[in-house]
Design a protein that fits this description.
CATH topology of the largest domain: Rossmann fold
CATH architecture of the largest domain: 3-Layer(aba) Sandwich
Number of helices: 17
Length: 488
């Protein structure tokens, strides 16, 4: 890709970007959220058209008119934003638009055989007849990966492919990438997880503010240099130091159970404390949090806030008790994508700006602007649709609305999923500031460095039960993984 320019209205997104990938190469594409990485790849696959520049594949100029045409040519994009059809089966999602047929009849048996063979390669155990919408976010991501690998691709673009995956699923994906590389398939790997980049990639191209900053051999660079080029400044520590001032018990969960999801859950969290919830995908961490917040019903159990029993049967009741929930799935549960950034941030707090049914627009805008500035949300204006922001900035908007509500107990489910390294630190710093103000934070995370770097205590969940609890001092990756896999 040579001299690629792209603007959306007055917003210049790409400015003369050059990017190349060799045959059989795993090439990392890195940059902060909003740097232009996904836009560049969307231009390659025909989802967007560049204002200027050329694309050469095997030395010949090429311009795809849509992603389907790109895929037929051998260029496949596994998007960060999951594109499954929720009401269709897993099998239908795998073969949509590519159904096997003969004499006008769909060859379901052959499709099942091919799907099962691909699932076996990836160690996926999802029933093919299951509706995709009933699968977890991680399972849906594995379906998307399997679908891409079933094409005869020459170039596969992977945008944050492990963001929703367990460690085991990620390991299997890395094995697949290694075999693709041996067979001459090229992989563009977009990720904010430095450990992965330095483990599986050959080269890294860094983008910043719509421009290509540098391309380096992985063997000739280091974590600090890549971060410096991404953010344009030194990022000395990945995790800001924590000096928690822990107070009284803010939330206590007793004997919490929901059939088929979790059983006998008991834990507490104090004001000013961050309690990390770790475990493998499907262990029940998110299900526990959804029940606490009243999204899903529990079968039994009690919730105590500040020592008093409360009844929470829906999210409205949870909010009235001073709770907030930044959900794992920001697209369908965290945001109203076709509402503006302003509307999304102020929605839970509208009563603060309303008198006799009339909203004070000036106060609302000042409130929203303050939160946009504090969380460094990259947005052209507060009135732009939330759905047009990058994934990381959408995450910040979700966090902003709960902070604006002065939440006292905050549940963060994968708070930095799909967020760049600079923005991650900003979120961590914000978490520290909130706990300094006495907020109790429950953080569900699949990233062990994050769990170890930010948690004061760590609760590990295995198959719907708490398998152990570790203090910050005694916790190690090995101890967490032992508990997460059912060991002692």
């Amino acid at each position: 890709m040579e001299g690629i320019y792209k603007s959306f209205g007055t917003n210049q997104v790409l400015e003369g970007v050059n990017f190349e990938i060799l045959g059989g190469e795993v090439h990392a594409l890195m940059g902060e959220n909003g740097a232009g990485k996904s836009t560049l790849m969307n231009i390659l696959t025909g989802l967007h058209f560049s204002n200027q520049g050329t694309i050469l594949i095997d030395g010949e100029e090429k311009k795809f008119s849509n992603p389907k045409e790109a895929e037929e040519f051998g260029v496949t994009f596994i998007h960060q934003e999951i594109n499954t059809w929720p009401d269709m089966t897993v099998l239908d999602n795998l073969f949509i638009g590519k159904e096997l047929s003969a004499y006008g009849l769909v060859k379901t048996k052959d499709m099942k055989r091919l799907a099962k063979a691909q699932f076996d390669k990836l160690d996926i155990s999802i029933p093919l007849e299951k509706e995709a919408g009933l699968c977890s976010v991680g399972q849906q991501q594995m379906i998307e990966i399997a679908k891409a690998l079933m094409t005869d691709a020459k170039i596969i673009i992977m945008d944050e492919p492990t963001a929703a995956l367990t460690e085991k699923e990620s390991e299997k994906l890395f094995e697949i990438i290694a075999s693709l590389k041996v067979n001459g398939v090229s992989v563009v790997y977009i990720s904010h997880r430095m450990e992965e980049i330095f483990r599986i990639c050959d080269r890294v191209t860094v983008m910043r503010d719509g421009k290509c900053v540098d391309t380096m051999q992985i063997s000739e660079t280091c974590f600090e240099e890549v971060v410096r080029k991404m953010v344009g400044r030194e990022l000395k520590d990945r995790f800001p130091p924590r000096q928690p001032e822990v107070g009284s018990v803010a939330l206590e969960v007793k004997d919490f159970s929901r059939k088929g999801a979790f059983m006998d859950i008991n834990f507490s969290i104090k004001t000013g404390e961050i309690v990390g919830f770790s475990g493998l995908m499907g262990a029940g961490r998110t299900e526990i949090m959804r029940a606490i917040f009243g999204i899903d019903a529990k079968d039994s159990g009690e919730i105590l806030i500040n020592g008093e029993q409360v009844w929470i049967n829906n999210p409205s009741q949870a909010v009235k008790q001073g709770m907030g929930f930044v959900t794992e799935d920001r697209k369908t549960e965290g945001l109203i994508l076709d509402f503006s950034v302003r509307e999304n941030i102020s929605l839970p707090s509208l009563f603060s700006f309303t008198s006799k049914g009339i909203i004070n627009n000036t106060n609302e805008k000042e409130f929203v602007d303050l939160l946009i500035k504090r969380l460094t949300v990259k947005t052209e204006t507060r009135e732009i649709n939330a759905g047009s922001l990058s994934g990381g900035n959408q995450r910040k908007v979700v966090i902003a609305k709960w902070i604006g509500l002065s939440t006292q107990i905050l549940i963060l489910d994968e708070p930095t999923r799909g967020v760049d390294v600079g923005a991650k630190r900003e979120i961590y710093q914000l978490m520290n500031e909130l706990t300094q103000r006495g907020v109790a934070i429950i953080m569900v995370s699949s990233e062990l460095p994050e769990i170890l770097g930010m948690s004061d205590r760590i609760v590990v969940v295995h198959e719907g039960k708490i398998s152990g609890e570790l203090t910050r001092k005694e916790a190690t990756q090995e101890k967490i993984m032992t508990l997460a896999t059912g060991g002692q």
